[in-house]
Amino acid sequence: MRTFVCVKTQQLVSRVFSPSAAVRWRAAQSRFLCSSPPDERKSQPSLLRHLTSKLKATGPITVAEYMREVLTNPVAGYYVRNNMLGPDGDFITSPEISQIFGELLGVWIISEWMGAGRPKQLQLVELGPGKGSLASDVLRVFSQLRSVLGETSVSLHLVEVSPALSLIQAQNLTRDCSQEAVSEDELVYRRGTTAAGLPVFWYRRLDDVPAGFSICVAHEFFDALPIHKFQRTQKGWREVMVDIDPDKPDKLRFVVAPSPTMASSTLIQADERRDHVEVCAEGGSVVQQLSRRITEDGGAALIADYGHDGTKTDTFRSFKGHQLHDVLSNPGSADLTADVDFSYLRRKAGGGVACLGPVSQRTFLKNMGIDTRMQVSLHH
């Protein structure tokens, strides 16, 4: 079965947890609920200096380029420089709170593998694996169901842009059994082995993961990919750009491009009814890659993220210390995110794969048996 499942995490209802867990969950989800922070922490202005000099030289840049610089700039990018996950970071994801989430995904993966005829090779691919918690929980299920997997060759392939996070993942998944590549040209920049003897490989790009039957999981990965923002005007669609504020040279502001850009001419649907649209072209490209892999080699993909089905308009936001933060203020010090447009991803997946969903995370977890799993946990 060639499958895409889109799961919306924004609609997760805390009732699927015990009351005390629900309280902890809501506190953790303050990433999405809190208002502006009281005082800015000590700023690191190097990225702002870099951006302002770039803007002076080239003029306004797209929101996508701004996001790319802020999140992945090799020197001062947020993902490159920080360990942003967990209670002391800027946000928490589901696997950091409960292992049950990852365990149920493990059951889903094995179910998809069985539905595909139990291929002799199973590549588990995760995009943006965080601290490695999700992969760890999934692999625990694999070890518990070793008799089901039989002689199947199982390997873990992690697509991670952050060297700092890859180290944390390696510690969590392989203890001290990992090593970095000698040359930067190597596609696998880190490799290791889990305690159970499963090989683990790290890549910078999905394209670098070898061909073969693969089940891919992208949990809160697409919401951090760069978006283009567009505004409907009397002259037609125009792209929203980032520029220096002429009244405050050390501040940034949004401006509307005076004429069409390449993106505004190519990325908007002819029948679009909204007046403000966000399009993640990079996300579309990743989905196309996943679709091609599934079509050619078999497999499935699950995308779990905060998102909508082509209905929302302005969702671009920033989080710092679990609180909302101005997206243009102190770039590089806070996470940037935008809700995933599942209708766009579905279009980009094309007709070669079956696309299911999006459904709420609550519905997905209930279908996977979370209520039964919770009862087992509460009685142990």
UniProtKB/TrEMBL annotation:
InterPro entries found in the cross-reference section: NDUFAF7, NDUFAF7_sf, SAM-dependent_MTases_sf
Main location: mitochondrion
Gene Ontology terms: biological process: methylation; mitochondrial respiratory chain complex I assembly
Catalytic activity: L-arginyl-[protein] + 2 S-adenosyl-L-methionine = N(omega),N(omega)'-dimethyl-L-arginyl-[protein] + 2 S-adenosyl-L-homocysteine + 2 H(+)
GO cellular component: mitochondrion
Molecular function GO terms recorded: protein-arginine omega-N symmetric methyltransferase activity
Keywords: Methyltransferase, Mitochondrion, Transferase, Transit peptide
Entry protein name: Protein arginine methyltransferase NDUFAF7
